Amino acid sequence: MCSVLVAPSVHAAGLKVSLTERSQWPWPMTSPQAFDVASRAELAVFTEAMADADAGNAATGDAASLSKWKARMRQVVVTNFAKARETCAAGALFCEGAVPKDWEAMVATSRAGLAKLPAELAPWYAEQKPFHQGYVAELVRLAGLFPKVTSEILPLSPSERFGLEMPDRSFLLTFDDGPTPKGGGTDALAEQLRAQGIHAAFFLLGNNYEARRKATSVEQLRALYAGMCVASHGQEHRSHASWAGAVAGMESFHSRLAETLPEGQTKLTLFRPPYGQRNPGILQALERGGMKNMLWNIDSQDWHASNSGTKAAGRVLSLMLLWRHGIILFHDIHPKAASALPRIWNETRGSGVSWVDCRSE
Questions:
Q1: Are residues 174 and 141 in the same domain?
Q2: Which InterPro entries does the entry mention (predicted)?
């Protein structure tokens, strides 16, 4: 959720983001059981952070949206913790007692488990606690702004995709704002993904697409995205909730973009509005065109100046363990994804994580 090539304008994401290297977890995630141990731990720290924020009662903004988000997020956490408990062995971390059935039980279980963490997890907890406190603050801010400022925090329509409908441990990689000039980040990322056998979705921005198309051939554009999915990020990187020309610009761009789809992709089906900002009119226009609005639930925040490849990877890994499935947002116009992805793939290899084929969406 960034502005293109420059610092973001005022939008729902704000400027303060929570980052972590997640460098202190001592055990490799080389099996589904090991993934679940790490997942239970991240869920417990997030629960503690969210419960503490609730007790502080510092949230401001739209009360109805905050209430709706809290209920939704609490259910996500309880459901995900139950999933992570399915592989529990006797004496394993956060496996004592009954599986929490509601938020109050989840808070009690989390606090009890965190109070008796083994000493070797103390550095991890010291690193992750402030990360989750900051992440909760990010989410609360987005919820307080909604629906005046729409974003990925809540749906406007049941037809929108956020990633929560995907199977457990399944994740879709997505990239916004490209293409870059020839030989840039888009080219390198597409090659990197093909080498891993991963089929990701690229949400192209009209202005950048037109610049690349003028400098190359239709055939080269199709080859650039071979094995990937081409999707739309709109003609211009501006709020599609308030821009009067959003639908016209979008439809004009889509007709051009449809001329350069990669082999095997017969039509344009996915759209993502800049900043996640949309209105019912945008969704109606997409429906008329047979397209779906795809948002995300895991944001790498790789556009942010204080972020790095290491921190982007640490943030994404932490959120994969928290959310357990979903749509991951990177940007191919920034270099951090290229260095973050190898670590993410390395640390989840053997963990039961699967990378969703965008062509099935």
A1: no
A2: Glyco_hydro/deAcase_b/a-brl (IPR011330), NODB_dom (IPR002509), Polysacc_deacetylase_ArnD (IPR050248)
